[in-house]
Design brief:
Keywords: NAD, Oxidoreductase, Tricarboxylic acid cycle. The chain has eleven helices and eleven strands. The protein is an alpha/beta fold and 336 residues long. The longest helix is centred in the last third of the chain and has 26 residues. Bound molecules: nicotinamide-adenine-dinucleotide and (2S)-2-hydroxybutanedioic acid.
Length: 336
Amino acid sequence: MLKQVTKQLALQGVRQFSVSQQNNYKVTVCGAAGGIGQPLSLLLKQNPLVTDLSLYDIVHTPGVAADLSHIDTKSKTAGFIGADQLADSLKGSDVVVIPAGVPRKPGMTRDDLFNVNAGIIKDISNSIAKNCPKALVAIITNPVNTCVPIAAEILKKAGVYDPKRLFGVSTLDVVRARAFIGHALGVDPQTVQIPVIGGHSGVTILPVLSQSQPLFKGNQDAIEKLTVRIQEAGTEVVKAKAGAGSATLSMAYAGARFAGSLLKGLNGEKNVIECSYVQSNITEATFFSTPLVLGKNGLQENLGLPKLNDYEKKLLEAAIPELKKNIQKGIDFANA
Ligand SMILES: NC(=O)c1ccc[n+]([C@@H]2O[C@H](COP(=O)([O-])OP(=O)(O)OC[C@H]3O[C@@H](n4cnc5c(N)ncnc54)[C@H](O)[C@@H]3O)[C@@H](O)[C@H]2O)c1
Ligand SMILES: O=C(O)C[C@H](O)C(=O)O
């Protein structure tokens, strides 16, 4: 009996090894010691497509890496600390996820983070351009609406920009919409499908409730209340944390889901669809989130605007000027 079990385990081991030979991706987390970075890295350590998990931060990464490296999954974990080690952390990366930078405190807007976080994104983007120009880059750092255009400009200046490889992570808006709709309807949130388009702040977050499946049932008042709740959900967490930061655990979950989808696309899986904030010609805003098909080179196909009802068209009208302003601010910063 024991022999049989041992043989079975050995066979499983062989199978796992052969899988790892095909699916060996390096993922770097920049800001890996932070409130998002640590749980995000923990979730990525469990992703079977990851063989190298590289943890970069300006503090604490040796400890975080030592801790995670004791988890019995196949990826190797390495910690890199300080600007001198950024290049080494990035070399060979297939996917770079960036939650580096300061979070909001009550009373602040995401745009108030610009002064600190814009410079962080600029520096990391410059290093990505030199060390892993082909990586898929997923920016979590706020203000996302502005940080993504900054990264695009920096990559352009270095001559390595590929709009199919740069993403702003708006997955948390989708995750929240699924949670709120699922609980309101009394269905498993995991079964809810809902596009959330636009950007990632206030009025630029546009949950397309008319397209949710199952359909969100409610009168216009309920629809408007739910829309505002999704738009203001980040602020709800900032207030509840009362000065201790913003969403970290739900963001880590959302970030791991988005990075996981990028990896599935790289790995040739079909029909991998996520909403994400990318360079876009779907609206007047040159960066905009819509549902995307992800593939071997990142963005494979932009599925465009979902069908919008009159209320959602008004929301879109309100979002565009704000988005354009946010985008221009990033372009100006990068070219100053
Ligand atoms: N896109 C979204 O949906 C979303 C959701 C939640 C939070 N955020 C944003 O994510 C960012 C991080 O939030 P958090 O709660 O993890 O903050 P945090 O302060 O807990 O962690 C940030 C980490 O970034 C590190 N860092 C600072 N400067 C760095 C640099 N130059 N290079 C590398 N690392 C650096 C810090 O040392 C820290 O470990 C914030 O800007 C926040 O607004 C975005
Ligand atoms: O609200 C924030 O500042 C963090 C994040 O953008 C969120 O939506 O939770």
